Amino acid sequence: MNDCLFCKIIAGEIPGNKVYENDRVFAFRDINPQAPTHVLIVPKKHMANILECDAETAAALTDAVGVIARQEGVAESGFRLVSNCGPHGCQSVHHLHVHLLGGEQLTERMA
Ligand code: DGP
Description:
- By secondary structure, the chain is α+β, with helices and mostly antiparallel strands.
- It has a domain at 1-76: HIT family, subunit A (2-Layer Sandwich).
- Helix content is 22%, strand content 23%.
- It is built from two helices and five strands, in the order αβββαββ.
- The chain has a five-stranded antiparallel beta sheet, with helices on one face.
- The longest helix is centred in the middle third of the chain and has 17 residues, at 55-71.
- The N and C termini lie far apart (30 Å).
């Protein structure tokens, strides 16, 4: 998609701090990290949010979560996954992404 920030990062048109890539998924560090490990995991195919996600993409994202969690050293200690959707979900970039947060004891909260 022409005007999508994350599509540009995936294409290498905007620098992103890549941590993982395969044929379906791209992952990079959040520009404004909320935890010592804060990785954004996105499908290469543009889709606005989780409501547009097909089963194959969902499986690819889930596989990537495991790979990245182990790679980042948080698989044992634990981590949080968040995917904001729409205005009430405070989604600010309209390309589906999953936040993977960890590397410290996260606080208890609604989600
Ligand atoms: P959300 O609010 O759930 O839509 O999360 C969007 C995230 O994207 C937010 O945590 C900050 C991150 N972000 C925004 N612009 C950039 C960028 O140019 N580079 C990187 N690496 N992350 C970005």
